[in-house]
Amino acid sequence: MRTKLVVGNWKMNMTTIQAAAAIESCVRLVDAKSNVDVIICPPYLSICKVRELLRNTHIKVGAQDVFWEESGAYTGKISPAMLTDAGATYCIVGHSEMRGRFGATDISQSTLGYFSESDQTVNLKIKALLFHSLNPILCVGETMEERESGKTDDVIRTQISEALNQIEPAEMFFFVVAYEPVWAIGTGQTCSAAEAERVCALIRSCLDPIVREDVRVLYGGSVKASNASELFKQPNVDGGLVGGASLDPGEFSRIVMSA
Fold first, then answer.
1. Measured between alpha carbons, how far is 232 from 234 in angstroms, rounded to an integer?
2. pLDDT tens digits along 8-31
3. Can 180 be counted among the known catalytic residues?
4. Catalytic: which of 142, 180, 197, 251?
């Protein structure tokens, strides 16, 4: 049986001091729930501090992104070796916001090109993470326009196929895939539990049979304490990728308890 997993993605929130306070509260509320795996993904600058505070707990630390080169003239980028050095063991790749696909945002349409993640760069990042024994959390999902056009399944299949190009099944046993419908991120809208289950089952069917039953598939998209229990009861939903609700230790702990 797959162990439930809840990932908190803090996005661009919290200074190091604020992160320390949040983690101290989180540990008090969450660490006792040892039958659920928990990962916190803070901003880069807080990874070391968060890892230090979580050292004697079962809660792990992840990063929100990575660059695929080992080193070089890539201003502002962070390599897999740097993440390992900071104490991260997981890393989110292909998040919709990195792809320039926002559910709700104040970002001007004219600047969305700044967020230029593609299926090809996601694939490069996954290969780099695996080389350094870091566990990828691959995000896939469709926009509202794609959903209304009946393209949800095709979008999901393509994103998974391209992201996992030339990835051997033997490398994927600790993989995590998160279904994050773009239209539900930061909008307050949530996929129905039945539809989340359908798409998560589709994702599982796209994986190699060797690892299909081992890879954990999460739901992400306005997950909160009030809807987590119903979502997590679905057979193919192994937990959640939690955004805004992960910034509140009380709310996040209730989501973890729902798992």
1. 5
2. 999 999 999 999 999 999 999 998
3. yes
4. 180
